[in-house]
Each structure stands twice: as C-alpha cells, then as structure tokens.
Design goal:
2 copies of one chain form a homodimer. The first copy, chain A, is an alpha+beta fold. Chain A has helices at residues 64-72, 93-111, 133-136, 139-145, 151-157, 210-223, 265-283, 303-314, 317-324, 330-339, 370-377, 404-412; strands at residues 24-29, 41-56, 77-87, 118-125, 166-174, 177-186, 199-204, 239-244, 292-300, 350-353, 356-360, 363-364, 381-387, 393-400.
Chain lengths: 415, 415
C-alpha cells in the first residue's frame, strides 16, 4: 500500500454516531491479511428474513467476490456479510474463486444459513492471491460475539487509504412507524493506490421486500455514487449493498412488498439523502485533493446527457489541474463540454464559477472579471455551473482537483 | 501561456530536413498576436489545381476556423493555408466567425483565388477574441514573398508549448514517378496549457483527386493520430489537412482519380508511415512526460475494441502515474481493461511488460519476477502488451506518463 499522506482537508472534526439498528450486529478482527496493528476483517450478522439489494462494478474484470455477490443476490436474502481489507481478491483466477468459496462455506456454518445468504467483499491490492485460510477459521467466533453498537468499528475495519471513516444515518417514517437507515463506505474514489476500491454497506430495520428494495437502490445510485468520480478509474470491486432486516415490523410497520409503493416516499428520500451524503464523503477524501468540486450541468437534452457532460468535466486532467492551480480557466470547461460527445449549442453555452458568469452565449461574458473569478477559485469548495443551451434537463457530478499529492501518492511510493 | 519547462527527453538532437516540394511555398511573420519575439503567422501558398483532404476535431464546441475548413473542404480544392499561433479563436462567438471571414477575404485577394480554396487554422488560448486586423493586412505581402525552402520555418511558426518542431518526410512511387510527402505538426498532445491544440499539415506533389486523397487520409488517421493520446482531452481545434499539388504529373505521373486505385499502394503506405511518425513525435512531446508508452492490445473482438481498450489504459491517470513512478503495477492495467467496456475474458487475460509476462490466463504469471519487471520500468520507452483472450483483432495506442511536471505545467503557472 502506498504511504498514507496527510488527512483530507475535508475530514470531519467529529464523526457522526450511528446508533444500533434492530437486526444487525458487527464484529471485527485483526487477521493480518496485509496490514499489521489494525482491524482488517469485518462481519455483519443479520436477522432471519433480512432482504438485500445490490449494485456492483460494471468492470469486465470484476473481482471474484463481486461475481459471488451477483449470483447470491438473485434470491434477495441475506444473513451474513464478510468483508476484508488489504487484498481485493481481484484477477486471482481460480484461486480467487476458491478463496470466496472457502469464506462462504465458513460463514454458512458459522451463521447456520444457506450459501446464497452470504455476501462477501474484498478491498486492497489487485492480483495478489488471497489466502482465506488466514481468516476463515475466525468467522465462527466473530459471528457469535457480534454486537449491535459497533458501526464505527465496522467502518474502520474496511478502510484502505481512506483518511477517515465515512458514515451517515437518516430516519424516515413508513406509515406511522419510524425506521432508521445507517450506512458506511470506504474508498478514496476509484483511485486509491493498489486499491480496489469503493465498498458501501447500508442497513435499515425497515421491512421491505427485496424487489422494491432493489428498485430504490438502483434508482438512487445514478444520482449519488454514479455522479461521483475522482479520476474516472472504475475499480474491479465496487460493491454497494443495502440490507433491510425487517425488524421494524415488530413495532407495527406494515411490510412493503411492491415496487413504487407510495408509503416508501419518505424512506426513498431519506435513502437518497444518505447515499448522497456518503458519495460526497468519498469525493471529499479523494487522494491528494485540495478542493471539492461540483459540476452542475443545465439545459441538456436529457438527464443522462447532462451527467455525461458533467463527468467529462470531472474526469478531465487538464481542467482538474487548473482547479488545483486556482486558475479560473473556463476555456478548459468549454473543451470538456465539447469532448463529451453530447449535444451542446456552442453559441448558447454559458458558464458560471460560483455566482460569477464567466461565459455567456458562446463567448466570454461581458461581465467577466478576472480578479473576481481568481478570488473565487481560492475557495475550498468550488461549484462550476454550465448551461449547454439545448434542452431543460439537469444533473451534477461531485469530484476533487488533481494535485501534486495525487501524483506523489500514486507514483512516488511503491506499492 | 504557461511557463515552458524543460525540453522533452525525446526531443531530437538534429531536426529532419524537409526538401522543397513542387507547388508549395511558405512565408511566416511576427504578427504579435500574443507572443513577442517569435513568428506566429504562417502562410502556405499552393499551385493551381491543388486538391485537399481533411479531418477535424469531433468536439461539439469546435472552433470557428474548424467550422470554416469543414465548409470549404467540400469542393476539395486549395490555394492558400493561413495559420496563426497564440490564439485558438475558439469559443469566441460571432467575433470568431468575423475574424475567420476577414482572414479568408484577405487571403482570397492576396492569392487571387476563391473563398473555398482558403483554409485557416488557429491555435492558442481559448475564449479570447482574435483580432484578425492585426495580421490580415500582412497576407498580401506574405503570399508574394512565399518560398519553397521554408518547411522548418513554417513548422516553428505554429508551435505553442511544443518543445521541438515535429516534421517528417517520405518518398513513394506512383507508377514509375517518385513523389514526395512532407508533413509537420504541432501539439504537446491535447494537453498544452490553455492551448488548443493539434494541428498537422501534410503536403505532396502527387497528382491525386480530392476523393481518393480523403479516403487515404480518413483511413490512416484511425491508426495514427487517433491512436495517440496525452490525457484524453480532445481539443476544440484539432485539424489535419493533406494537400496534393499535382505537380508530379509534369514529371509524368498519371493522375489518380479513383478511390482504391492499386497504383496508390506504395503512396498509401508511405503516407501512413509519415502520419505515424508525426503522431509519435506529438506523444513524445506530451507535457511533462518522462516516458513514452505504447499499449498493444491483442485478442480483441475487433480492431475498434482493441483500440478502445488501449485508449482506456492510455487515459487512466492511476496507471499513468504508476508508470511515472516506475511501478510495474499490472493490477492497474487489469482495472483499465475492465473499465473500457469492451469484451475481455478475465480468465484468459495476459499481460506483458516488455518481454516479461506479468499475468497469464487471468492471474499473476508463475514466471512473474518483481525485480525483472521493476528494472524494465526504469527504461525510457515502455511497451505494455495485453491479450484480452476473446478474438484475434489487435491495435495499439501511443501515450506518455503522468508526472509532477504535468501538474506543474497545468496548475502551478497561470495562463
């Protein structure tokens, strides 16, 4: 693993506390998979009848744990989640599948459940065979001693080059019963050295069947995690799982079994808000960043087109280095819009840096003031708004700048 | 313009000499458009009956000169080319078109030709209005004094952050008449600070009609300039023009009027070779580079898929920083293959760094030797070969590494 450099300037002074959730217990261990002197194994034990939804990396070289999760997800049932850090078990061939099989088998026995109820995730170095024997024998004990009040310990065990654990909690009413959603994730974007990479686990005590749960997750991932990038380098291991224990039904929550139920309106909004919170936390821990940047695209043909234009900006090295240099170089925004391939009317294009309009109707704004723009760029949070002038769809992407520290973290230190 | 840093380590010790070509004359001037104490205006005067082919940026925010060239190209006839450096005349709205109109008008009068026979290109800062009055009055004199033996002067006048002029020459027989192809281009990839960006002009005395000329150019651009990237940031101004004066017919060359003529076989190969030479010269002057990198993809479904996979590698910041750090981090190659979206068989994927096989059939190669791989990465020219195991198509992409100097050039200095 690359040398960890300074904490992100956006690391929170105090961490949010995640209260225990009915039906979920955690245990962690120092298994010594790669790191020494820190936890690197996390087990979440889920009550019977827990439903699960998931989304995974689109990579064609997806890791062995991702392939197993995709397969197990079909029934939408979950009892155990086993996550290790230090080794991604990606591109490890037959040995990779064997490591997953051994883990799943040990977890099945420990939790007395079916194979499809076990979910696994690994994060860390790619291509190094993962020896599951190092930790498989620990699972029985971990499942037994798992306890509810341990969200932060769980979040810490799955960190790699993260400079802080990323957690969020929300509450929502389903009918007149209040439910809780707790989530945590790891990842310094898709870019941590030798790491792979974004893992996110969300838990709720709501009673929601797997199908509507999946529908909510798939809907919200587009405008949250899929609207966040550090350098466009999609990992082999991205995994987002949402578990619903259903324990709120004990307190009278009427089970939700159908997609699109109006009763989920508030829950859906809370889930979206929590996912957005976590996605922003990941971008704010992007490697080497000095600034958090939001690109807002308006006036696009479709929401998808707007997001593609925003991503084209957020993944442009030349634009991200200009932002790191506090240079209000809007010509590079024009370039990034142009290269996205999406429709934009060159003669209606307008660009704002914060509230300052730098370009209007396809040329430099008459109000453009270099000093004002330059002062704005010195801020720690930058918002660049672009109207592409062809429609009325809008979207946004969160990212960070590209700094010398990014190069140092990824080039100067051997993994 | 950003501060020019050190010369590329690949800058040639001696420049290739381009001999005069029948039917082409050049003149340059210090017009003071933006730079002081150097030439920034270049005029090429072409004999009557010169044909022309061109390819341009795919950007949706293409510059005013690109839009004019696209329009003029339809008749395939050319008499004058006017190029300025220091200002890209991109994203300059109505003023941009007016500057082009004024330039074209002045060139038309100077060369006594039709509007559609005038081609224009501009490179430099984006968004700054270009005042064509500064140089339009010079064109008459420049056309008059243009001379044949001035390829290097022409190549120098269009440079921006280039650290050396990029030139190449080839000869080929059409029938039993030898013709010459001379070309030069500018661009430190698509990434020069505030610059936009790749301009390439090729001249030949061959007698070839516009249609077959365009067919050759369009065919070869795919495997030459479109197989080269510095950071994936497509400019608003990329322009590649090929002029054929036809003067070789005086020496008995039978005019070629049809696409696919077998008589063009040797010429086509020479043109491809010259375009490849120039494309490699551009990548070797990529900003801040320390290494020149070739990605070769084999075993792909199609040539297009192979090139997309190679481009996914060549545009990956995390992989390019690893190469800058001389880290044989093949896990990042796996990541970049996976994120390309093209078919790859994870369990058949093999990767070579130079001659050293680092991964075979979806896992780390049994022969993998860290020391051997690390030593290879210390070289100045790196070849990474990838077999994706699904077909038999192959392609390649040339690029450079991503270094601290890249960040310095694009972030530390204000434009």
């Amino acid at each position: 693993m690359g040398k960890i450099t300074t904490r992100s300037p956006f690391a929170p002074d105090t961490l949010v506390r995640l209260e225990p959730l009915e039906g979920v217990r955690f245990a962690t261990a120092e298994a010594g998979i790669r790191y020494q002197g820190r936890t690197d194994l996390m087990v979440a034990v889920l009550d019977a009848d827990t439903t699960v939804a998931g989304v995974f990396t689109q990579s064609k070289t997806a890791s062995a744990p991702v392939l197993a999760c995709r397969k197990h997800l079909k029934k939408g049932e979950a009892r155990v989640l086993v996550v290790n850090s230090g080794n991604a078990n990606a591109f490890t061939g037959k040995k990779g599948k064997e490591a997953v099989d051994l883990t799943v088998e040990a977890a099945t026995e420990a939790a007395d459940c079916a194979r499809h109820e076990v979910f696994v995730a690994s994060t860390g170095v790619i291509g190094e065979p993962l020896d599951a024997k190092v930790f498989a024998h620990l699972l029985d004990d971990l499942v037994k001693k798992a306890e509810p009040d341990a969200f932060e310990a769980a979040a810490r065990a799955i960190m790699t080059t993260d400079t802080y654990p990323k957690m969020a909690t929300r509450k929502a009413f389903i009918g007149d019963v209040e439910v809780t959603i707790n989530g945590f994730c790891k990842g310094a974007g898709m870019i941590a050295p030798d790491m792979a990479t974004m893992l996110c686990f969300i838990f709720t005590d709501a009673h929601i069947a797997a199908k509507p749960l999946q529908a909510l997750l798939s809907e919200h991932v587009e405008t949250t995690f899929n609207a966040m990038t550090v350098d466009g380098d999609t990992s082999t291991s991205d995994t987002l799982l949402l578990f619903a224990t259903g324990d709120a039904s004990v307190r009278g929550q009427e089970p939700i079994t159908k997609e699109g139920s109006k009763k989920l309106k508030e829950f859906s909004a809370a889930l979206h808000d929590l996912m957005q919170d976590l996605a922003i936390q990941v971008a704010k821990d992007g490697e080497g960043l000095s600034k958090f940047v939001t690109f807002v695209v308006e006036g696009a043909e479709s929401e998808k087109a707007a997001r593609r234009i925003a991503l084209s900006c957020a993944n442009s090295p030349i634009l991200k280095t200009a932002i790191a240099g506090e240079d209000p170089n809007w010509g590079r925004v024009v370039m990034a819009v142009g290269k996205s391939g999406e429709a934009a009317d060159r003669d209606k294009l307008s660009i704002w840096f914060g509230e300052h309009c730098v370009a209007r109707d396809g040329e430099r704004s008459a109000d453009y003031d270099e000093a004002t723009a330059a002062t704005y760029m010195k801020g720690r949070e930058i918002v660049i708004r672009i109207d592409v002038g062809v429609g009325d769809a809008t979207s946004h992407v969160w990212t960070c700048d590209l700094t010398h520290d990014y190069v140092s973290i990824n080039a100067d230190y051997r993994s």
